[in-house]
Amino acid sequence: MINMSFALEAALLPCLPARELQAIDRSPHPTHQIDVERHAREFMEAAKKLQLYFIGLQQEENPSEVETLRKEISAMEEELKTKSELIKRHEKLIQGWRTELKEQLGKHVTELERV
Fold it and tell me: Which of 40, 38, 20 is nearest to 29 (CA)?
């Protein structure tokens, strides 16, 4: 972003009124000097505002380390919650299968005893 701001400033610099800049050398009137200085000052103020704007955008895009860590912790907590729920469901399934297997084993043992 900062490089973009400097590039923008470099691109806008030639936009200063060249005729008035050249007129300083030829004109004996001090008003021309004042106009050029005013234009240059306004241009530099606009360039500074743009630079501050782009720096602000960059800071918004790059959250602080604390914010980044909070987001990561929140994501990890959500992942932990999801995986804990998944583990509970699997434990219930396994418990159900154990019960079914014990029942089937009991049936098979009973059938084998009859034979």
Answer: 20
